[in-house]
């Protein structure tokens, strides 16, 4: 389903701000946060918690080397986006006044290959062409780190990463046989594997847990806002966090919202795919965080940097002030 059709469904739920503080959310048209944000709007949980969510979808392409949503936030055209925290660290270290103020989830992907492929594990990536959205994508960094630690080679050198530039193009590369495997994002994998003939060789969430050294579910992706917005509208940010938790509770406990999401935001006509996305989302999402969570995220970053180095992560540390716990 295209951006226009999805946006029409979202716009039908927008309503009037009614004098409430506005938070402009700009999210990718094929990213999983749209399921949660649409549900928040449909159930009126933004107004119930004291703010108005202005929700628009954007493409997943790159603008000037950064994802469209990042460009929107940095250019002052958005107040709320989500990206992985490694990218956040990279952009903040380069001077972007962005802040991660609440977790979203373990938004990693999986290694997907044809069912007849000889790729059965990361060890089989030597000499292969592997499709990635971009070489600084978190999935590729995880694979590089895991291969260095467990298999003694760096796939950035022993394999050939092929940058697709978008998730849609990444799927096309796989379908057209232009690559041997892809590192696709988790919400798209059910459609690929259910319709076949492809299989998920390895979920990246397994690498996250292995490299972090903890059993706690760590959020890879977080919600971001600008330093300016957080300073001027801290109450709205806290209201979003409350509405988010309430929305997560509904999506985890109730199947009805997923039926609506499947009908209005997904292009799948196969209930099995919708259920697979629903179950994957429930496994992925992180409802809240605390200081212990941040320690685990710091440990994962350290593990990735120790193995992949600054060249893989694009940054050598998590900048001070990047994470904000709103209840402090």
Automatic annotation (TrEMBL):
Top-level division of the source organism's lineage: Archaea
Q: Which residues form the SsuA/THI5-like domain?
A: 67-254
SUPFAM superfamilies (UniProt xref)? Periplasmic binding protein-like II (SSF53850)
This protein is called what?
NitT/TauT family transport system substrate-binding protein
Cross-referenced InterPro entries: SsuA/THI5
Transmembrane feature ranges:
none
Q: Which residues form a coiled coil?
A: none
């Amino acid at each position: 389903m295209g951006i226009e059709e999805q946006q029409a469904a979202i716009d039908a739920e927008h309503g009037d701000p009614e004098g409430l503080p506005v938070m402009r959310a700009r999210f990718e048209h094929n990213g999983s946060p749209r399921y949660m944000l649409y549900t928040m709007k449909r159930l009126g949980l933004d107004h119930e918690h004291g703010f108005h969510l202005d929700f628009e979808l954007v493409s997943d392409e790159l603008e000037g080397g950064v994802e469209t949503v990042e460009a929107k936030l940095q250019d002052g055209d958005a107040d709320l986006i989500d990206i992985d925290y490694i990218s956040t660290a990279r952009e903040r270290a380069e001077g972007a006044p962005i802040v991660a103020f609440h977790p979203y989830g373990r938004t990693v992907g999986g290694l997907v290959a044809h069912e007849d492929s000889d790729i059965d594990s990361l060890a089989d990536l030597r000499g292969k062409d592997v499709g990635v959205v971009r070489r600084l994508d978190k999935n590729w960094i995880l694979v590089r780190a895991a291969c260095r630690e467990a298999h003694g080679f760096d796939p950035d050198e022993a394999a050939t990463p092929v940058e697709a530039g978008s998730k849609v193009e990444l799927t096309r590369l796989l379908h057209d046989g232009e690559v041997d495997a892809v590192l696709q994002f988790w919400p798209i994998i059910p459609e690929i594997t259910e319709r076949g003939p492809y299989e998920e060789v390895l979920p990246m969430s397994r690498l996250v847990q292995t490299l972090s050294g903890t059993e706690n579910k760590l959020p890879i992706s977080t919600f971001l806002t600008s330093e300016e917005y957080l300073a001027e509208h801290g109450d709205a940010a806290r209201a979003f966090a409350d509405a988010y938790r309430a929305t997560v509770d509904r999506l985890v406990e109730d199947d009805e919202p997923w039926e609506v999401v499947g009908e209005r935001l997904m292009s799948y006509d196969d209930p099995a795919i919708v259920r697979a996305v629903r179950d994957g989302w429930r496994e992925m999402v992180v409802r809240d965080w605390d200081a212990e969570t941040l320690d685990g995220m710091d440990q994962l970053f350290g593990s990735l940097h120790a193995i992949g180095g600054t060249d893989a992560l694009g940054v050598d540390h998590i900048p001070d002030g990047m994470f904000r716990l709103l209840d402090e």
